[in-house]
Write a structure and sequence with these properties.
The protein is of the alpha+beta class. The chain has helices at about 10-25, 25-35, 60-75, 175-200, 205-215, 235-240, 245-250, 280-300, 325-330, 335-345, 350-355, 360-365, 370-395, 420-465, 470-515; strands at about 80-85, 90, 100-105, 110-115, 120-125, 125-130, 135, 220, 225-230, 230, 255, 265, 305, 310.
Length: about 525
């Protein structure tokens, strides 16, 4: 059996990375000269490219280096060990919620028993436990930087996918969700597959999150060409600046009391009428410009930026010393914005749920727990659409997703949306139904309490008539207590719950109004 018969595309990529690290070579330069970019599009597939000796773009010593890393990786997979990169906690289970068994020193050799998402099951000195995979080096895997923002070599990667990996959008109606998914892939798929390899995330998942967070665009037309999409948050600007400048803030900015993320208004002149600005990029920039005149740093910390709509106050988490540097980087191009998305996912602990496709957990980390079910459903829907388009492209059985030049049978029913908003209406109905399920359950419990209470009172009266005074009084007291609970406790709790759900639904509707379809 030859080496090429026994390796996957992922193992070939990792071997190139390892060889590049050893010789301090740019790994993407090796991949470019070997013409192996297509490996990123099917990392789990068997390597079917040219033998190493036939890769004419590589020097002989580079080929030998990569081959040596391949052989070493294959051998070590039979008896895998790992090396700690620093002081590291050995935990009793795969998560930080589990107890620490001991703290391992740097360069500790660990026997690998298996993997569980972001955690590696290991044995050391006869004791088994779990360590986080970001802090150990597995012999067949390269060590990858924790911040993409500090890797300038990534900027050389083309944003679009390879020509034969493009999705055909000619049969998809513009304004539909199917078109938006395919269009996003055709604009950013080439960079996405490379970055997803860094984190072992499936490209469909990353694409879906980007689309859910921004509608798939990082820039929009401005007075002097394209400029970055932003959203100015009044309540954040209050926290960053207005709290210490209350009177000036109140002259120009407003938001809804108790629901600070809603009701955002502004006015440049204290005597002018209040006006809304969300959903209009020209107005968003007017507000940012005005706020920057009051405090530029606070203003830039108060906007969400670009494709992933990351807030400026998260600058350090995505590799920048402060919001100004993040603003300048994100404004320079969409590649920097995509780097920021991946770095932010890492900083929020979102890698593991995305690897495991646990969208509710990821949405809770990325958007906050309040609307996690909503965003989880949005992400899942977009993942499903991309994977359907990709499967149809690969199978060539239907017209959707075929590369240009390949024409489908015109008699085939493509099951496309019949109007630009049909798919979103379906998704919205599904999400609203999920959000209201708890309230229906609460209403059922409420009515059940009333029925049980009335039956208890009737039973008490019956016992009194039958001469059982103590039993009758006890039943009546229990019934009256239940009745009091029905009228006083449950209505108030349900009212509060309904108000919270209404706020959540209004936030969802606000989000949909901003989407381009």
């Amino acid at each position: 059996m030859t080496v090429s018969d026994r390796i996957t595309n992922q193992l070939m990529l990792d071997s190139i990375y390892l060889a590049a690290q050893e010789t301090e070579t740019n790994r993407f330069d090796l991949i470019e000269r070997a013409n192996l970019w297509e490996l990123f599009y099917d990392r789990t597939g068997e390597y079917r490219g040219n033998p190493l000796v036939s890769l004419s773009g590589l020097a002989d010593d580079e080929k030998k280096n990569i081959q040596r890393k391949l052989i070493e990786s294959l051998a070590r997979r039979q008896n895998t060990t790992a090396l700690t990169l620093g002081h590291l906690n050995l935990r009793s289970g795969p998560g930080t919620q589990y107890s620490t068994l001991q703290t391992l020193p740097p360069d500790s050799n660990l026997s690998v028993m298996g993997e569980a998402g972001d955690w590696v099951h290991v044995q050391v000195d006869g004791r088994q436990g779990y360590v986080h995979r970001d802090y150990v080096k597995l012999p067949h895997q390269p060590v990858k930087s924790r911040l993409l923002a500090v890797q300038p070599e990534l900027l050389r990667i083309a944003l679009p996918p390879l020509p034969d990996q493009m999705l055909d959008t000619s049969r998809l109606a513009q304004g539909t969700l199917l078109f938006a998914v395919a269009d996003l892939w055709n604009r950013y798929g080439g960079l996405l597959v490379v970055l997803c390899n860094e984190l072992d995330i499936h490209p469909s998942v990353a694409l879906a999150v980007l689309l859910a967070e921004s509608g798939g665009r990082g820039f929009a037309p401005g007075p002097n060409g394209q400029r970055m999409i932003i959203r100015f948050e009044n309540h954040i600007f209050y926290d960053r600046w207005g709290r210490n400048n209350q009177e000036r803030f109140d002259r120009h900015f407003a938001y809804a009391p108790g629901q600070t993320w809603k009701g955002h208004l502004w006015r440049p002149d204290p005597g002018a009428a209040w006006q809304g600005f969300h959903g209009n990029q020209q107005k968003e920039w007017e507000v940012l410009t005005f706020a920057s005149g009051l405090d530029r740093r606070a203003a830039r910390e108060s906007i969400s930026m670009g494709l992933p709509q990351i807030m400026g106050f998260n600058a350090v988490a995505v590799g920048y010393p402060q919001a100004d540097a993040m603003f300048d980087a994100f404004a320079s191009g969409e590649a920097r914005q995509i780097f920021g998305f991946f770095d932010f996912v890492r900083s929020k602990g979102g890698v593991s749920p995305l690897r495991g496709r646990d969208y509710p957990v990821f949405a809770g980390l990325y958007n906050g727990p309040g609307q996690a079910p909503v965003y989880a459903a949005i992400i899942q829907e977009r993942v499903d659409i991309f994977e359907r388009l990709w499967a149809e492209k690969k199978s060539d059985t239907r017209g959707i997703g075929l590369v240009p030049g390949s024409r489908p049978d015109p008699s085939v029913d493509f099951d496309l949306p019949r109007s630009p908003t049909e798919e979103d209406r379906v998704a919205l109905r599904r999400q609203l139904a999920g959000l209201l399920a708890d309230q229906r359950r609460a209403l059922l419990y409420h009515q059940a309490l009333l029925v049980v209470t009335l039956l208890t009172i009737v039973t008490g009266l019956g016992l009194l008539v039958a001469g059982s005074v103590l039993g009758g009084i006890f039943s009546l007291l229990v019934g009256l207590a239940g009745l009091a609970g029905y009228f006083l406790v449950r209505p108030e709790q349900m009212s509060s719950a309904f108000r919270a759900k209404i706020a959540e639904l209004e936030g969802l509707l606000d989000r949909y109004e901003q989407l381009p379809w």
